[in-house]
Every structure is written in structure tokens, then in C-alpha cells.
Specification:
- The chain is an alpha+beta fold.
- The protein is built from 3 helices and 4 strands.
- The protein has one domain (about 1-100): Alpha-Beta Plaits (2-Layer Sandwich).
- The protein has a 4-stranded antiparallel beta sheet with strand order 2-3-1-4.
Length: about 100
């Protein structure tokens, strides 16, 4: 099993309300992929609650192989979420793929 973990740092928001709306939309859309992409074994999105750390969201996914990780990165439903919701507000991203 491969864990594909991604951390996102977003640009500053105009308000805390806007931040919560946007982050919840991203969370809901990403978590919806579990019912769309059959080879995803697990997918969770968590919000960082520590204001002293730079990352806003952690995406944790489990897939069977690195081939599935690569395929997931090109999956149209995933690409659309990245393109429409994440990329416009993205400041930084970090990723690690590891055996679980």
C-alpha cells in the first residue's frame, strides 16, 4: 500500500469566514473522490489547527501502487478540483509518497 500525502499552503484570505468556506469546499470535493475513483483505498482531508505552522490542509490518500498514484494525478475529477479550487489560491505544496 502506498500513502500519498500532500500538504497545501494557501494565499491569505480576506476573512476567516472566506477561509472556512473555501477550505470546506476543497475538503468536500476531495473527499467525494473516494466514490468516483475506484482504485482509491482511502482519502482523508484534515485542517491544520496550529497557527504556528505554515500548512493549511493535509490530504492523505492510500493507493495500491505508485502506478495508481500517477494515474490518480491525471484523473479528470481530481484534475478539475485542483484546477478550479486549489491552484487559484495555492501558495505552496509539499508531497510525500511512502509505503504504509
Amino acid at each position: 500500500m502506498i500513502r500519498h500525502d500532500v500538504m497545501f499552503k494557501f494565499k491569505p484570505f480576506d476573512s476567516e469566514e472566506e477561509k472556512l468556506l473555501r477550505l470546506n469546499k476543497i475538503k468536500n470535493e476531495l473527499e467525494g473522490l473516494i466514490s468516483v475513483i475506484s482504485y482509491l483505498r482511502d482519502l482523508r482531508v484534515s485542517f491544520n489547527i496550529n497557527p504556528n505552522e505554515q500548512w493549511d490542509i493535509l490530504l492523505e490518500t492510500e493507493l495500491d501502487s505508485m502506478e495508481d498514484v500517477i494515474k490518480y494525478g491525471k484523473e479528470p475529477a481530481h484534475v478539475e478540483i485542483v484546477k478550479s479550487l486549489i491552484r487559484p489560491i495555492l501558495e505552496n505544496r509539499a508531497c510525500i509518497d511512502h509505503l504504509s
